[in-house]
Design goal:
- This protein has about 425 residues and is mainly alpha-helical.
- It has one domain (about 20-415).
- It is built from 16 helices and 4 strands.
- Strands 1-2 form a two-stranded antiparallel ribbon. Strands 3-4 form a two-stranded antiparallel ribbon.
- Helix 1 crosses helix 13 and helix 3 crosses helix 10 (about 240-265).
- The longest helix has about 40 residues, at about 1-40.
- The chain starts with a helix and ends with a helix.
- The model is unreliable at about 180-190, about 225-235 and about 365-415 (pLDDT under 50).
- It comes from Malus domestica (Apple).
- It is a multi-pass membrane protein.
- InterPro entries: EamA_dom (IPR000620), EmrE-like (IPR037185), WAT1-related (IPR030184).
Length: about 425
């Protein structure tokens, strides 16, 4: 009996990362539904984003100050710069673009387009010479084909509607039940072709922001190497406190989002929150998406790696499709299904190619591993001697080794955006 109990405990311990990621996907799917409801309730979208980061910061800051009060390193200008850029490209700007696209299209459409982040990051990495195409091997071909499939799927979802697919109908439509006459979206149905194209462009711009954020992290890594070889670091290593770094990013995003919202909306009545869907949306998205989800995903990345986290993202797309059809009466069309399938297949193609490259790199690059109390294991790449040729090799080794990691973890950033 004791042996059986021990085996059951070991099974549950091994399944803990899986269960946590499934719970996170359910939570993030709920954020998309609440976003749609708040937008159609007439809430100003810029104010919604500002409140989300305010709630996230208010939730994370006390936790970070208490739990990491002894282990938190000193704030430097470089850490503040990274926090500002993270809050801008990975937070306020990307969120404003995404929620505008969500209001113009649908929850299913926005969730599907978000799966393009790894493909866009890969394209930018090639443009900035942080990564090579490597079309001679299977992993490189898989990344290119996956990228093309993802872009093709987005185009199919945008320009091809097709026949309507009726799976079930609950006759429940929370949008029409909560829509108010003064809503600025009430006379702008998302079925309009012009809105669909504009919404697609905004969603693509949001994905581009997240890709730029990931590329900036890699560039900062290279700068760190040139200044202080032979170590290479990123914010998770130079500031190895998950709660504090997330709170810093959320605080920067709050400042930027509030400033932008005040510039565009100065009517104070719009900022009032009552006991309604608006308060539920900003509190839920701030606490769950910006607070708990980011921390839990960081924990799962430390336990299983970024690729493990990334493969769960299509589950969120499926959950959003089910929830939207159940409570929002969103209709599935053939074009949406085909496009989503192409995007998901392209996503797994890119992730498979990344996984193969990371596996090959870990076997070919000599490294020494040490363990940090907070950040887990960290690989230190052994650099060549300091000379002209060695410097170029240092950069190439860093970018080739780190770019796949940054890109493969791109999808895990969805928690920061609540999609």
């Amino acid at each position: 009996m004791t042996m059986g109990t021990g085996q059951i405990c070991n099974v549950f311990h091994g399944l803990k990362p899986v269960l946590l990621m499934v719970v996170i996907q359910f939570a993030l799917a709920g954020v998309n539904i609440l976003y749609k409801l708040a937008a159609h309730d007439g809430m100003n979208l810029r104010i919604l984003v500002a409140y989300r980061f305010i709630f996230g910061t208010a939730f994370l800051l006390p936790i970070a100050l208490f739990i990491e009060r002894k282990s938190r390193p000193k704030l430097t200008w470089m850490v503040l710069l990274q926090g500002f850029l993270s809050g801008l490209f990975g937070g306020s700007l990307a969120q404003n673009l995404y929620i505008e696209s969500l209001a113009l299209t649908s929850a299913i459409f926005g969730s599907a387009i978000a799966q393009l982040i790894p493909a866009i990051t890969f394209i930018l990495a090639v443009i900035f010479r942080l990564e090579k195409l490597n079309l001679k091997n299977l992993a490189g071909k898989a990344k290119v084909m996956g990228t093309l499939m993802g872009i093709g799927g987005a185009m199919v979802m945008t320009f091809y509607k097709g026949m309507e697919i009726n799976i079930w109908s609950t006759h429940v439509d929370l949008i029409h039940a909560n829509r108010q006459q003064h809503s600025h979206l009430a006379s702008t149905p998302h079925t309009d072709t012009g809105n669909q194209i504009l919404g697609c462009l905004l969603a693509f711009a949001s994905c581009l922001c997240y890709a730029i954020w990931l590329i900036i992290q890699v560039i900062l890594l290279i700068t760190k190497v040139l200044i202080n070889p032979p170590f290479y670091t990123k914010m998770g290593v130079t500031y190895p406190c998950y709660y504090s770094s997330t709170a810093l990013m959320s605080a920067m995003g709050s400042i930027q989002a509030v400033g932008y919202a005040l510039c565009k909306e100065r009517e104070w009545s719009q900022w009032k929150l009552g006991w309604n869907i608006r308060l539920l949306t900003v509190a839920y998205s701030g606490i769950m998406a910006t607070g708990l989800s980011v921390t839990i995903i960081a924990l799962c990345i430390r336990m299983r790696g970024p690729l493990f986290v990334s493969v769960f993202n299509p589950l969120m797309l499926v959950l959003v499709a089910i929830l939207a059809s159940l409570v929002l009466e969103e209709k599935l069309h053939l074009g949406s299904v085909l496009g989503a399938v192409l995007i998901v297949c392209g996503l797994y193609g890119v992730l498979w190619g990344k996984g193969k490259e990371i596996e090959k790199m870990s076997n070919s690059v000599p490294s020494t591993t040490f363990h940090h109390q907070d950040s887990g294991s960290i690989d230190i790449v052994t650099m060549p001697p300091d000379n002209n040729k060695g410097n170029s090799n240092n950069i190439e080794s860093l970018t080739n080794n780190n770019a796949p990691k940054a890109t493969s973890s791109a999808v895990s950033t969805n928690s920061k955006r609540g999609i």
